[in-house]
Amino acid sequence: MNGNDNKLKMCTECGTQYPESHTDNTCIICEDERQAVPQSGQSWTSHEKLLEKHSVEIKKINDNLYEFVVNPRFSIGQRALFVISEDGNILWDCIPLLDEGVIEFIKSKGGLKTIAISHPHYYSIMKMWAETFTCKIYIHEKDKEWVVNGGNSVEYWKGDHMKLWNQIRLHNIGGHFDGSSVIEIPWMSEKGTLLIGDT
Ligand SMILES: [Zn+2]
Ligand SMILES: [Zn+2]
Fold first, then answer.
1. Residue 108 Cα to ligand 2 middle (Å)
2. Domain holding 10: CATH number?
3. Does the N-terminal or the C-terminal CB of the chain have fewer CB atoms within 10 Å?
């Protein structure tokens, strides 16, 4: 994990981490009408501070699907879903915390091949996650303007859908954000499974 990123400022309200170059006191995600700046005003924390009193809770949903949430609840209560797949595991959406427990858990399941994110309310500390597991982050190009701290890990995809592996696909459905996407895993249940974030 990159120690410097640990200290970067993170929006307390939505968990988005900002690069050092961001010097003004606003969060573009919270200023947007789909989120909200708290009445008490914009405030910041850091991943380092968050680690002091929070941990990642891991819940099994089925043999190929686990849920990660920050406990106790932080920011907008994001959850990430960890999809275990033969040709590479996927993190669907992201959470603003990355602790040793979840890192070890993911390694024990074969690591992480990619991160894919439904929309900007989950960007949080995606750069730290991607750099920890040396993987890419798939984000639809229509949401490019909302990416504030992706580093070199973000890969923008275009069009209606994109194939990953093991028949898994991302679909751009728009709505909540222009780039809002869902992930389809046809073999996860009898009728197929769609993971949708809050889209
Ligand atoms: Zn924010
Ligand atoms: Zn949202």
1. 30
2. 3.60.15
3. N
Per the structure, how many domains does the chain have? 1
Q: Mean of the per-residue pLDDT values for the chain?
A: 95
DSSP secondary-structure letter at 51? H
Query: What is the average per-residue pLDDT within 28-41?
Result: 93
Maximum distance among all alpha carbons in the chain?
A: 50
Q: Which ligand is nearest to the CA of 119?
A: 2
Q: How far apart are CA 92 and CA 151, in angstroms?
A: 18
Radius of gyration of the chain from its Cα atoms, rounded to whole angstroms: 16
Residue numbers of the domain that contains 67: 3-195
For residue 17, the ligand closest to its alpha carbon is 1
Confidence of residue 197 (pLDDT cuts 50, 70, 90): confident
User: Is the confidence at residue 1, as pLDDT, over 70?
Assistant: no
- Give the number of the ligand closest to the Cα of residue 179: 2
C-alpha 140/C-alpha 174 separation (Å) is: 10
Surrounding residues of ion ligand 1, Cβ less than 5 A: 11, 13-14, 16, 27, 29-30
Q: How far is 160 from 157, CA to CA, in rounded Å?
A: 9
- The half-sphere exposure of 173 on its side-chain side, counting CA atoms within 13 A, is 16
How many angstroms separate the alpha carbon of residue 76 from the centre of ligand 2? 9
Structure confidence by residue, pLDDT tens digits, 57-94: 999 999 999 999 999 999 999 999 999 999 999 999 99
